[in-house]
Amino acid sequence: MGNKKEQFVAKSFITLVLTASFLLIQPALFGQNLDDFEKRLTKFTLSNGMKFIVLERHEAPVISFFTYVDVGSVDEVKGITGLAHIFEHMAFKGNQFIGTKDYKAESDAMAEADSIFEEIKAEQRKGEKADKARIEQLEKKFSEVRQKAAKYIVHDEFEEILTREGASGLNAFTGNDTTGYVSSFPSNKLQLWMLMESGRFATPVLREFYEEKNVIMEERRMSENNPQSRLMEEYLALAFKAHPYGEPIIGHMSDLQTLTRKEAVEFFKKHYSPNNLTAAIVGDVDPQEAKKYADMYFGALPRGPVSEPVETVEPPQLGERRIVLKDMAQPMIIIGFHTVSINHPDNAAFDVLNDILSSGRTSRLYKSLIKDKKIAVSASASGGFPGEKYPGLFAFFALPSRGHTNAECEQAINEQIQLLKNEPVTDDELQKAKTRVRAGLIRQLGSNMGLARQLASYEVLTGDWRNLFKRIDEIDKISAADIQRIAKEYFIEKNRTVGAIETITEKN
For the CA atoms of 480, 342, 473, 466, what is the dihedral angle to 10 degrees? Predict the structure, then answer.
């Protein structure tokens, strides 16, 4: 350990490096100011309600596209959990014109399969009185009809067309709050993207629906065999007794087994109308050309119902909740507290606190649990868990090291929480954290895709893409008193949910 002067010089150097990094990144992204940035951004809304955000960045002849669908697992209800995720898979199957050799014949076969599946469900609902021989007969016929439909399919044609034309980074994801579709193209393929993406939502064909359900059910089984995944699902179900943040994104197995293609189509019609879509286009793009093609291809999509926000509000927690899973696995502990959504004034303070607690080797959790006490191999914190659109959790995570326990980690985390309540964070600690949070936010915006995702997300979640940049100002205003206040207000025993894996040597 060096003397105080050496420590001061080292700290000053780290602060200088972080500040310099921030200043180097900032001009590249913003130009001279936000006004200059806004000059390169065009936002427009089609008559059917679909929004487009177009940002010009002509440094390279590429464009990144991000389609934000304002629907996630939070919009499902009991009985259809997993549908948002299933449709994400379906969106790559093509439409009436792509992915089929004979759509009429394929459609007839799919309709027949749907009818047989409904018969199977009806018989299974009889429970003990169900005719097992009839179910077996129907399942055989169901398999035959699906094989018949499969003869008309041109597998992966949708993706192959895009890849052949230079697409990269083709992907999609389903979260609690949103579903997103991402891709990047050479800049001369703007019209192709408009054609293909609009077709994906205009005339989707949920082909191979039952086959894809089987794939997802296998994912579900794999998740059930993973102790940490099991803990996470059980933990969220305990933390949220009313709000759908407590439901698994992948869905419950019984729902996956009984979901029908008809239910998926109804879900699509309800949530995938153009007025629930926001497309961000960033790169070497002409905004006027983008608007022309948007009108041409997306303008014909009929306006549908607006996705209403979830009305269920998680009630205040009245006492600590705990769950312990006993397994032949590594111990793990999660300690979470109900907090706020992205639009709450305290949200920026939680971002800064998250950095103070778990960003790098100088963070409080690392120094306490890993470096000094040596009781954990991993220790971190995270806000906005499992989502940001609605009030979620600020959670602490720890994996005990060999010979140490969840109880030791929990005590050490509680000590850090108490320290936050009793003593304001130091000015040096606060400034470093704010610099890192600002720099981290800006680094996310260093690529076309990073910009596209953040612009669309902030537009939908907060109502204005400009809030992405106001966020930096909000972070700058956070004080040590703000950090101490939120710790005292939110990190209280009755607001706490604890989940753990306790290691056993053999299963009963």
Answer: 180
> Is residue 91 classed as helix, strand or coil in its secondary structure?
coil
SS3 334: strand
Mean pLDDT of 356-383: 96
Main-chain phi, psi angles of 434, to 5 degrees? -65, -40
Beta bridge partners of 68: 180, 278
Q: How many residues appear in the chain?
A: 508
Tens digit of each residue's pLDDT (9 = 90 or more) over 152-200:
999 999 999 999 999 999 999 999 999 999 999 999 999 999 999 999 9
- Structure tokens belonging to residue 114: 């749907």
What's the confidence (pLDDT) of residue 33?
A: 55
Give the residue, 34 or 405, on which the prediction is more confident: 405
Burial of 442 (0-12, 13-18, 19+ CB in 10 A): buried
In order of 66, 87, 303, 345, 457, the CA distances from 307 in angstroms are 19, 16, 12, 25, 16
Which tokens sit at 115?
């009818």
* Cβ atoms 255, 80 nearer than 8 A: yes
Residue 398 vs residues 382, 387, 406: alpha-carbon distances, Å: 12, 20, 8
Distance CA 114, CA 252 (A): 21
C-beta separation of 99 from 154 below 8 A = yes
For the cut 50, the answer to whether the pLDDT of residue 5 exceeds it is: no
Structure-block tokens of residue 113: 């399969």
Whose CA is closest to 171, among 161, 180, 163, 162? Answer: 180
Distance of CA 12 to CAs 9, 336, 424, 428, 429, Å? Answer: 5, 34, 21, 9, 12
Give the CA distances from residue 210 to residues 73, 141, 258, 377, 493, in Å, rounded to whole numbers and listed in that order: 20, 14, 10, 42, 45
Read off the pLDDT of residues 52-105 as tens digits, 9 standing for 90 and up. 999 999 999 999 999 999 999 999 999 999 999 999 999 999 999 999 999 999
Structure-token match 């205009």, residue found? 202
Per-residue model confidence as pLDDT tens digits over 290-347: 999 999 999 999 999 888 899 999 999 999 999 999 999 999 999 999 999 999 999 9
- Count of alpha carbons within 13 angstroms of residue 113, beta-carbon side: 24
> How many angstroms separate the CA atoms of 485 and 420, rounded?
9
The yes-or-no verdict on residue 1 having pLDDT over 80 is no
Q: What sign has the CA pseudo-torsion 460, 466, 469, 471?
A: negative
**Torsion on CA atoms 478, 175, 43, 168, rounded to nearest 10:** 110
